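Wait, mind explaining this?

_____
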Amino acid sequence: MFDAGDVVHFHYLWKRQADAGEESGRKARPVCVVVRTPDVPGAVFLFAITSQAPHEDRLFLPISQIECRRAGLDFPCWIILDEYNRVELDKAFDFETSRPLGSFSPAFLKTSHAPSRMQRQAAGWRR
């Protein structure tokens, strides 16, 4: 359904919203599909993309202007790395569409080490 680095619209549920009892994200926002793990092959881990500069206490990755263009995003943007949404693909109701906006280049994913950072996050951080 999705490949690593695809950017899709998804009703992302922030941790603070989940902690307040909400069950679905308030709006569809771009997210980066990066991680599929051998432990949970039927799920993807989604990392939010924001156009608002993250607070300095957040773990984030800035996205270059050319990568924003490739992914169908406005510049500037950041990938938030200290929380994620895990989605079972057979229960993927919060995707706005299954068609990606665009995707990050393999070079960006490789040189930025984004997938390994995101895999570490998916292994044990927030939501």
Summary: The chain has one domain: 6-124.
